[in-house]
Design goal:
The complex is a heterodimer of chains A (618) and B (220). Chain A is an all-alpha fold. Chain A has helices spanning 21-32, 35-39, 41-48, 50-79, 83-90, 95-125, 147-151, 154-163, 178-195, 199-209, 212-225, 230-234, 246-259, 266-272, 280-329, 341-351, 353-358, 366-371, 377-390, 394-426, 436-451, 459-470, 473-503, 509-536, 561-590, 598-601, 609-616; strands spanning 540-543, 555-558. Chain B has 220 residues and is α+β, with helices and mostly antiparallel strands. Chain B has helices at 2-21, 36-40, 49-67, 104-113, 115-121, 148-182, 185-199, 209-219; strands spanning 30-34, 77-83, 87-92, 129-132. A 4-stranded antiparallel sheet of chain B has the order 2-3-1-4, with helices on both faces. The longest helix of chain B has 35 residues, at 148-182. The chains are: A mainly alpha (618), B alpha+beta (220). Chain B: Its main location: membrane.
């Protein structure tokens, strides 16, 4: 097997290669299919109505997602370098795009692996009977249950107190939670072992991490469809509403964009290890379609299980009322059931209205329970864990679910970290004496140490900030510059020539129109709309404060000024390299000096690389 | 005659007196609530007078056990206000003086002491046989010495560390072998070519783009 850094007889370095096409495809699919497919897409379907959301989603996929995907895979494969090298080659003035990609990938790796660490923590805790989030713990003198748990729910308590040990606000940083540090160390160790030999080990790992989620989703699908209440949950997927709300389009476009993981630089890196004669058009369409299909496929068991959870909550709400009525009116045990509750209630309310109202019965409406939606960590660690408790054989389902989330997160981490490592290799920043394993270890250790900030008491609040500010606007900006660079600066003609060389045929009119007009326009509109919406929402966060008046509702607090400054920095610093590098190159060019990269500047088709290399040999 | 009338009055009066002692919201009484169908479902037995007698017997047993006095009897447990729920009130009278009630606190202590036995006598649990006002003591949590999650973590991190070390060592050994093989250039090239065939990918080495464009022109 070829290894990195091996000197061949011609004196150049041989780039590592994929063992076979399957590994490459699985890696790209694994990178694109992440936890967002499971916990963001179903949520969007739920709040907009499944049928209504799918239309803008598929339109965005075809006109924005696939062209961008094809573009990234093509330039990576053609120019055979990581993101920095590729953008330097296309235009030295736009070299900043590569740097921005690398910085953003670095920041995303930080918080994404923390989410993987949380999943690991839940996975470790799933091997217990009973599950730790199923009941409240006793207080210190065994007289009752912990108050915080009783007021909220055991699931909430386990997430906010036992896992995060969250502080009431962002100013209080709290201390490092050792169990979180341990989980984070495990997560980074597992990422390291998969990266230890570069794509050789990644290629092996993705056989498991990219395929296992599908297996688990299928098992869940079969199980979920047999649960009571599944049908009510699935109705959400088939509701149809008028697409009046422009927010739907914005959410669909952003969802498809972030879901495909473009602008990270990871896809460019992965395709750079390919043979140049590979048909990247088919690959792009395949990856894009599989990513969307996975989202839709994942929605079915998720909705079914959410329906089951709503049904369970509804039944226990009714049972609480039934017990209150039975006890107060001394009616024979189990005479009032869920089925005849309505008649009993009406008759009792008719005869003794004051007594019934004194009981303070809860209104139990199935629709209210169904409408309780959650996305992100709330879906996985609160809603789903609650549903799992009510399923027979909870441990098995919990373990399966968290292993699935772990696989999804790990395969996405491969792309994130690749977007950091490959540009560093290509920039030749790695000293010659340092073996790749050591360099990877240093980067992983550095990322681990920096991510310890998310293990503090206030870690979750910081993670939300990173997620909202780093993982959004910078990507849109980078992607916009990517497509402008290739379509207008590199030239669509030259790009079509490269594509013909690689795939054997020129790109058809659809791709050209998308690259030239539709995709940049869509990206620009989405970027402007997203920034406008963000500017209108006040910068607040939801804090978990047990002393809050309305506890267990989360307290909505504004960001402190220094935190808001950090948010702005996080959004702008990654992309600031784009204008900076352009200005720097401009200055260099005007002062008449040649930069080191002049050889790579213009990939002149007539420049015969073979002779160049031979000349360099002493 | 008079004695006989007095005796008759006592016979009538005693239960009446007992009824006065036991009533709803009696200061020294407890309300008991039993949920048979919830606990036993299909196997639920019928609650009848015999069961009530059984309850009196178990309560008398509980009182005997707590006070270490063997004088408590079923007559000392007075039941009233039965409903179809099933629920009823009961009071406990002193064996020495049937008009004197045992204070609430003492009854509570007796019930707490024998709660487990009372529950099992009726095949019920703390939740389905309720003494309103006497809260069940919560079960002490099972605290294992090592938290289970730590064990799973230990297994995973152990496997990962072993894997890392194994891979690093094998990388090192491979590099040493390569260095030995590099001394013979010819053998190295052979290795490369063999690899090319093995991979199945058409390894063209460094693609000479200078010739590609010539191909294009010849098509014209």
């Amino acid at each position: 097997m070829p290894e990195e850094g091996m000197e061949d007889s011609k004196g150049g370095e041989e780039r590592p290669k994929w063992n076979n096409k399957a590994e490459y495809l699985l890696t790209c699919i694994g990178f694109a299919v992440g936890v967002g497919n499971v916990w963001r897409f179903p949520y969007l379907c739920q709040i907009y109505g499944g049928g209504a959301f799918l239309i803008p989603y598929l339109i965005a996929l075809v006109f924005q997602g696939l062209p961008l995907l094809y573009l990234e895979l093509a330039i990576g494969q053609r120019l055979r370098m990581g993101s920095i090298g590729v953008w330097n080659s296309i235009s030295p003035y736009l070299g900043g795009v590569g740097v921005a990609s690398m910085v953003v990938s670095f920041c995303v790796s930080l918080f994404y692996n923390t989410i993987v660490a949380w999943v690991l923590w839940y996975l470790f805790n799933s091997f217990q009977e009973p599950l730790p989030w199923s009941q409240c713990p006793l207080n210190h003198n065994n007289t009752g249950y912990v108050e915080e748990c009783v007021e909220s729910t055991p699931v909430n308590y386990f997430w906010y107190r036992k896992t995060l040990n969250i502080t009431p606000n962002m100013e209080t940083s709290g201390s490092l939670q050792w169990w979180m540090v341990v989980s984070l160390a495990t997560a980074w160790s597992i990422v390291y072992i998969c990266f230890i030999r570069g794509i050789e080990t990644i290629g092996k790992a993705v056989y498991v991490t990219a395929t296992f989620p599908y297996l688990v989703l299928t098992i869940f699908l079969v199980r979920a469809l047999t649960l009571p209440g599944a049908y009510e949950g699935l109705i959400y997927l088939f509701t149809w509403e008028i697409l009046k709300n422009p927010q739907v389009w914005l959410d669909a476009a952003t969802q498809i964009f972030f879901s495909l993981s473009v602008a990270f630089g990871g896809l460019i890196s992965f395709s750079s290890y390919n043979n140049q004669k590979n048909n990247c058009e088919k690959d792009a369409v395949l990856v894009g379609v599989i990513n969307s299909a996975t989202s839709i496929y994942a929605s079915i068991p998720i909705f079914a299980i959410l329906g089951f959870k709503a049904h369970t909550n509804y039944v226990s709400c009714l049972n609480g009322n039934i017990l209150a009525l039975t006890n107060d009116f001394d009616i024979s045990d189990m005479n009032i059931t869920v089925e005849n509750y309505e008649q009993w209630f009406d008759s009792l309310n008719g005869t003794h209205p004051s007594r019934v109202s004194d009981l303070n019965l809860k209104t139990c409406d199935l629709q209210t329970f169904l409408d309780q939606s959650a996305s992100g960590t709330g879906l996985a660690f609160i809603v789903f864990t609650e549903a799992v408790i009510s399923m027979p054989g909870s441990q098995v389902w919990a373990v399966l679910f968290f292993i699935m989330l772990f696989s999804l997160g790990l395969s996405s981490m491969f792309g994130n970290l690749e977007g950091v490592l490959t540009p560093l290799h290509d920039l030749k920043l790695v000293p010659k004496w340092m073996p790749n394993e050591l360099f990877t270890a240093i980067i992983c250790l550095l990322l681990f140490l920096m991510a310890l900030i998310f293990c503090l008491g206030s870690g979750n609040y910081w993670l939300e900030i990173f997620n909202s500010y780093v993982g959004s606007v910078p990507f849109l900006i980078i992607a916009f510059f990517e497509i402008i660079a290739v379509a207008y600066i590199y030239g669509i003609g030259r790009f079509s020539d490269d594509l013909e060389f690689m795939t054997g045929h020129r790109p058809n009119i659809f791709w050209k129109v998308c690259w030239l007009v539709i995709s940049p326009l869509m990206l620009f509109v989405v970027l402007v709309a997203y920034v406008a919406v963000q500017a209108q929402t006040p910068p607040t966060y939801a804090a978990w404060n047990p002393d809050y008046v309305n506890f267990p509702d989360t307290e909505v607090l504004p960001y402190p000024d220094w935190v808001f400054a950090i948010c702005v920095l996080l959004s702008s610093v990654p992309v600031i390299s784009i204008p900076l590098v352009a200005i720097y190159r401009l200055i260099c060019c005007m002062s008449g000096r040649h930069s080191k990269d002049s050889l790579h500047n213009d990939p002149n088709p007539y420049a015969n690389e073979d002779y160049v290399v031979e000349r360099a040999r002493p | 005659m008079l004695v006989w009338i007095l005796f008759l009055l006592c016979q009538v009066g005693a239960p009446a007196l007992a009824q006065d002692l036991c009533q709803r919201d009696a200061p020294n009484g407890y309300k008991v609530r039993i949920s048979l169908k919830t606990a036993l479902g299909e196997d639920a037995y019928e609650w009848n007078q015999s069961e009530m007698f059984f309850f009196q017997a178990t309560m008398a047993f509980a009182m005997r056990r707590h006070f270490q006095m063997e004088t408590y009897n079923v007559d000392n447990i007075i039941l009233c206000v039965q409903t179809s729920r099933v629920s009823f009130w009961f009071v406990v009278t002193s064996p020495d003086n049937t008009t004197m009630l045992i204070p609430k606190a003492d009854v509570e202590k007796a019930v707490r002491m024998s709660r487990h036995r009372i529950n099992n006598a009726f095949l019920l649990s703390d939740r389905t046989l309720e003494f309103l006002g006497i809260y069940p003591t919560l079960a002490a949590p099972v605290n294992p010495d090592t938290p289970p999650w730590l064990i799973v973590f230990g297994v995973v991190i152990g496997a990962v560390c072993v894997g890392i070390i194994a891979l690093l060592i094998s990388s090192l050994l491979q590099k040493r072998r390569k260095e030995k093989g590099m001394t013979e250039d010819g053998q190295d090239e052979e290795d490369m070519q063999v690899k090319g065939v093995e991979n199945g990918i058409n390894l063209d080495g460094t693609y000479n783009r200078g010739f590609t464009d010539d191909d294009r022109f010849t098509k014209l």
